[in-house]
Amino acid sequence: MFPAYPPPAFTQWTTREVHGFLAESLFLISHTGTHVDAPSHFEPGGKTIDEIPLDGFVTPGHVLDVRGLRAKTLITPDHLRKARRRLTAKIQAGEAVLVWTGWERKLGTPAYLTDHPGLSGAGAKLLLEWGAGLVGIDTANIDHPDDPKYPAHHTLLRGNTPILENVVNLVEIGPAPFILVALPLRLEGATGSPIRLVALL
Q1: Structural contact between residues 95 and 131, judged by C-beta atoms closer than 8 angstroms
Q2: Please, what's the largest Cα pairwise distance for the chain?
Q3: pLDDT-based confidence at 3, cuts 50/70/90?
Q4: In whole angstroms, what is the distance from residue 116 CA to residue 8 CA?
Q5: Domain that holds residue 81
Q6: 5 within some domain
Q7: In the prediction, which pLDDT does 41 show?
Q8: Count of CB atoms within 10 A of residue 27's CB?
Q9: Average of pLDDT values for 3-14?
Q10: Is 54 left (phi over 0), alpha (psi -120 to 50) or beta?
Q11: What pLDDT digit, counting tens, does each position of 88-99 carry?
């Protein structure tokens, strides 16, 4: 969880003995675990999660492999261009781009939340220029952990490009394109939603 948020809580709400069936109550922030940020998460007047067309969440995807970066490295356009050269297909307008830092290996440690690489504002702008319709990363925050201005968030969300965070298992995909499925819950007025992120290979 991002440090500003409480952890999720799941409580058994009914029992078979009393009610005849089981159900749980769920308490969680809309940006829990692997999730999507809607433009309204940062941008006044930006679209909420229920206002974003669903076709953008089922789309061809590409993994940009930028692994090997040191802690707190700022991911620049040069990093992204170098990674793009290893793809087997061109990124087309509206497609998804997932930035693979390898930081998933730090899950469960303080470093996962505080020392991860982060996408620069210029890097985010380049992804928009390439036509990315959805951008994800395998860290808890797409921005550099020490930048309180959140330039990558602002750049992408102003461009109406939703952001996926806490992406995992990118090692399973490779440089070839795939079909990404990242459907959010239809939460009226919400700034984001947990998702079950799937790659169809």
Answers
A1: yes
A2: 61
A3: confident
A4: 22
A5: 29-200
A6: no
A7: 98
A8: 11
A9: 94
A10: alpha
A11: 999 999 999 999
State the total domains in the chain: 1
Give CA–CA dist 25/191, Å, rounded. 21
β-strands 58-65, 118-119 pairing: unpaired
Contact status, residue 41 vs residue 157, Cβ threshold 8 Å = yes
153 given a catalytic annotation: no
- Can you tell me the distance from the alpha carbon of 3 to that of 48, in angstroms, rounded to the nearest whole number? 23
In a domain, 114, yes or no: yes
3-class DSSP state for residue 128?
A: helix
Q: In this structure, what are the phi and psi dihedrals at residue 106, rounded to the nearest 5 degrees?
A: -95, 0
What phi and psi, each to the nearest 5 degrees, are found at residue 84?
-65, -30
Q: What length does the chain have?
A: 201
Nearest to 97 by CA among 68, 69, 129, 74: 129
pLDDT tens-place string over residues 137-178: 999 999 999 999 999 999 999 999 999 999 999 999 989 999
Domain contains 167:
yes
Could you say which of 19, 31, 35, 41 is catalytic? Answer: 41
Which has the closest alpha carbon to 71: 27, 19, 98, 106? Answer: 106
Kindly state whether residue 18 falls inside one of the protein's structural domains. no
CATH, residue 99: 3.50.30.50
Q: Which two tokens stand for residue 151?
A: 């330039």
